Amino acid sequence: xxxxxxxxxxxxxxxxxxxxxxxxxxxxxxxxxxxxxxxxxxxxxxxxxxxxxxxxxxxxxxxxxxxxxxxxxxxxxxxxxxxxxxxxxxxxxxxxxxxxxxxxxxxxxxxxxxxxxxxxxxx
Length: 123
Known about the structure:
The protein is mostly helical. It has one domain. Helices cover 43% and strands 3% of the residues. The chain has helices spanning 10-14, 21-48, 74-83, 85-90, 101-104; strands at residues 112-113, 119-120. Strands 1-2 form a two-stranded antiparallel sheet. A hairpin with a 5-residue loop joins β1 and β2 (119-120). The longest helix is centred in the N-terminal third of the chain and has 28 residues, at 21-48. The mean pLDDT is 71. Residues 100-123 are annotated as: Disordered.
């Protein structure tokens, strides 16, 4: 396993052609932010769930005692994805919240439609 300093260029590791350093920096930044948002959402879900609702594994792989702090489980990540509106609508965690201009048109007074079907004017 390489350390962060030995990892080299992200685009080179991905097999992409050479490009400006700023492009590599921006892509790496977006990747780090995406992972941080995803893990942060999973941590918030773990911290807010009922403590005795699930059988949790502790760090040693054993069943955790009630109210024992447990590592993130797969269900926490699945729930983070399930709660993400962009993922539900378009299977896109990062940019799924936004609509394409070609699909929806780009009008400033566009009406907003919520998940429950109510239509409202933007503020």
